[in-house]
Amino acid sequence: MIERAHRLIVLAALTLAPTIAAMHAQPARARTPVRLVIHPRVGDTLRLRYEQRTDVRGDDEGPMERSVSTFITVHAHSIVEASEPALTTVRASTDSGWVRFRTVDPRPGVGVTEQKMMLPQVGSKMRVQVATDGATEVVSAAGAGGGSLSALLSQSPAMLPKLPVAVGDTWVRDIPLPSAASVALRGAGDVAGTVRARFRFDSLTARGKRAFVSVTAALRRDGTRPDAANGARVVSSGTLRGTLVLDRERAWMVEMRTSVSLVSDLVPGAGDLPPPMLFAPLGRSPRRAVVQIDQFMQTR
Predict the structure, then answer these.
(1) Tens of pLDDT along 56-92?
(2) Do residues 94 and 119 touch, judged by C-beta distance below 8 A?
(3) FRET label pair with 130: which of 20, 93, 123, 273, CA 20 to 30 Å apart?
(4) Residue 36 carries which DSSP code?
(5) How many helices (H) and strands (E) would you count in the chain?
């Protein structure tokens, strides 16, 4: 009986030993620096889906506040044409896309209005150069202006670190804001419409295939409106939060989610001149505007 129990203990130890060893080894492996780069193989086809929702509403007129929502969806694909150590060239095409506008106006006789249209840039093609840190540059475009796809690709900033990083490491990058938030901050004196964001390497899957990165930023601006003759100021504050998923085998960003929350207050200047329009989509001049922008991008 004692001998049988001893054999079971030995067998259990042999069975669990690899698991225990892996558990102890995992933190060390996770802290081993790895490269996070964009560098797909020549011939790869990357199919992209991009969605953005923007909500803008006045927040100072109680039940009479008006809101405007914009929904954008774009389907596109890219074929990798050339690859160099620091640069990849892809040919991108817009397959389909649409935009929908929704306005809620509580005034009597107005209510909810909606409008949906196809993006005129469907079928447009362009050639894009992608750096290993994720920065993109449109080098040529053909078709109906390439508008929506060109805007999407041209605003892709350098988000990945230049040097190898380990899980838990952080780095800082200047990234552009989505258009509605950019307009709000430009009104507060930010000409570039950019924000300094903090990235963190959160985790790495067991075999190192996928890397998960989070991004956060604080948005704060206080400046005089350039179009305000009476010195009116716009004070804006908010946050940017997001997550990135990098497929290290394909060397491409396969998922990205970002959320921008922003509140802008119009502070009147001296004199009796009317204040400038805080947000053109609202069609009037509220003293406070609330902006929410949610973006989602997925590549397969």
Answers:
(1) 887 765 556 778 899 999 999 999 999 999 999 999 9
(2) yes
(3) 123
(4) -
(5) 3, 12
